[in-house]
Amino acid sequence: MDNTLYLDCSYGISGDMFVASMLDLGADREVMLNALNSLLVQGFEVKISRVEKSGRDACDFNVVLDEKHENHDHDMQYLHGETKSDSHDEAHHYDHESRGIVEIEEIIKKADMTQGARELAVKIFTILAHAEAKAHEVPVEKVHFHEVGAVDSIADIVAAAVCFDNLGISRTIIPQICDGTGTIRCRHGLLSVPVPAVKNIDLAHKLNLHMTEVEGELVTPTGAAIAAAIRTDVQLPNHFTVCRTGLGAGKRAYKCPGILSAVLLTED
Fold first, then answer.
1. Most exposed among 17, 144, 208, 246, judged by the fewest C-beta atoms under 10 Å?
2. 42-51, 65-74, 184-193, 248-257: lowest mean pLDDT where?
3. Cα(243)–Cα(225) distance, rounded to whole angstroms?
4. Alpha helices (H) along the chain
5. What is the rounded CA–CA span in Å between residue 266 and residue 210?
6. How many separate domains does the chain show?
7. CA geometry: angle at 181 spanning 177 and 183, to 5°?
8. Counting Cβ atoms within 10 Å, is residue 137 exposed (0-12), middle (13-18) or buried (19+)?
9. pLDDT band at residue 98, thresholds of 50, 70 and 90?
10. Concatenated DSSP letters for 180-191?
11. Secondary structure (DSSP) of 122-151
12. What pLDDT, in 10s, does the model give residues 212-244?
């Protein structure tokens, strides 16, 4: 029986939110953890838990980095430019951890996962590579990822590909993706939301990005790339049966529920 996935991205999408929603749908966590443990990447561990988001029980997937690899992805004051950073330490972190698409593909090639999951992980990274290349006006092969090439993003994308493949999903419906407004801090300074990479993915893959009045980045480049890689449809069938539902929790605290709702359904 074919599995159809419906993603409600009313409150955005990120890599960790997507993985959590797939785990909540029933993806085999041991298969995922085995793939992550086989990665030729160090400096992280994975924690999976239940959390309450806006009064709803959701799955939380958290890639915990050691001090050497720590970043500010969930530090709200840092993200919105309210605290100062040590530019030398930050530059050292990104220079040390930057990786090109060829290096990332080699890491994926050697990981313990199915061929379907491997192809999807490479597809996601390729979408990101083209978006980042356009944003920085360099050839794709010259892109050295910062947010993407960091240890946590490699783990997020491999986990996303393995969980999606494990659920045997054949179609994915994503009507639209909602993002916020304002600015977000990255290593290049403050960027307008949606950030350039997300804009480029939307332009190339017609994600139907919808702007909301929420202050903050609801859609990360990783989340946008995952959506672009798996989406096959934009409209729910007229008649369907819901088989399972899942909620994936986000980490950032914004003025909207930080959840990604996923539904497995079959057409009647």
1. 208
2. 65-74
3. 26
4. 15-25, 29-37, 76-79, 87-97, 101-109, 115-136, 151-166, 196-205, 221-230
5. 27
6. 1
7. 125
8. exposed
9. low
10. EESEEEETTEEE
11. HHHHHHHHHHHHHHHTS-GGG-EESTTTSH
12. 999 999 999 999 999 999 999 999 999 999 999
Residue 258 has which token pair?
């930080």
Helix and strand numbers (H, E) in the chain are 9, 12
Location of structure tokens 């799955």? 59
Place of tokens 């929420």: 214
Q: Are 219 and 177 within 8 A, CB to CB?
A: yes
- Answer yes or no: is pLDDT of 149 > 60: no
Backbone angles phi, psi at 260, to 5 degrees: -115, 120
Q: How far is CA 75 from the centre of its chain?
A: 17
Whether this model's pTM surpasses 0.70: yes
User: Residue 142 corresponds to which tokens in the numbers above?
Assistant: 């010259």
Which residues constitute the domain of residue 125? 3-267
**180-192 burial, b if ≥16 CB within 10 A, otherwise e?**
beebbbbeeeebe
C-alpha 164/C-alpha 22 separation (Å) is 7
